Amino acid sequence: MGGRRWTKKEDDALFDGIGVFSIPWFQRKAGKSYDYPHAPLRSRKAIYSRAARRLGTGSLTRGTHTLIAAARETGYSRGQIQRAQSALNQKWKRLSTRGPYLITFDQLDEIIGWLRQDYWCMKLHLYGCVNCGDKQRPSAGMGLCQWCYRRLRGLLRRLDLPTQPKKILILMQSMDEPPLEMRAFVQRAKADLGRGWSLDEKQIRTLAAMLGK
Ligand SMILES: [Zn+2]
Fold first, then answer.
1. Residues with C-beta atoms within 5 A of ion ligand 1
2. Can you say how many angstroms the Cα of residue 29 is from the centroid of all Cα atoms in its chain?
3. How many Cα atoms occupy the beta-carbon half-sphere of 10 within 13 Å?
4. What is the CATH number of domain 65-118?
5. pLDDT at 15
């Protein structure tokens, strides 16, 4: 090795910063590798190996989640988490310029709190109208905004289909096994209806066509 020993102060900085700060931060805190005026900063590798020796492998990322892990653990999509990040103005750390973003527990707590409040329709866990995506107009039920609610109910009646998601689901469950190319559509529509969501206009028209209406 031959480099300068890590002082207690440097080790303390390393310990305090675990899970919070990036490698450049450690480099500023840890000082130089050798005892001469223009000595280089401690290398990335030196910081990793010191952290591993003192605090165990993986310690620099301890207390953090990657975006993928955060999405898996919270059930929110990556897009939703990124939307919350930008709304909350959070800065996520990264151990290298191309490394994954690391979200601390505190940041993730804040994100979950924000996303919880962010639902446009709390009851159905929706971020906007299922038909048009609008989130300004009030929710009128079945995951639809007032405008779409009126329109789609009218459309369902004209097509002689039930208006309640549950009744449409029962109707779909009674249908024959769909042709192969329609299976994905049917599966998705049943899942949406099962959550109490309305079908969107395109789904309603596809269903009507399948039923020969
Ligand atoms: Zn709408």
1. 129, 131-132, 134, 145, 148
2. 33
3. 18
4. 1.10.1660
5. 66
**Residues of the chain falling short of pLDDT 70:** 1-2, 15-22, 54-62
The Å distance, Cα 179 to ligand 1 centre, comes to 30
What are the residues whose beta carbons fall under 8 Å from the beta carbon of 84, sequence distance 6 or more?
A: 76, 90, 110, 111, 114, 115, 118
Residue 1: its pLDDT value, please?
46
Note the pLDDT tens digit of each residue in 117-165.
778 888 888 888 999 998 889 999 999 999 999 999 999 999 999 999 9
The angle, 0 to 180 degrees and rounded to 10, between the axes of the packed helices 23-30 and 44-55 is: 90
Per-domain boundaries in the chain: 8-61, 65-118, 139-210
CA of 33 to the centre of ligand 1 (A): 62
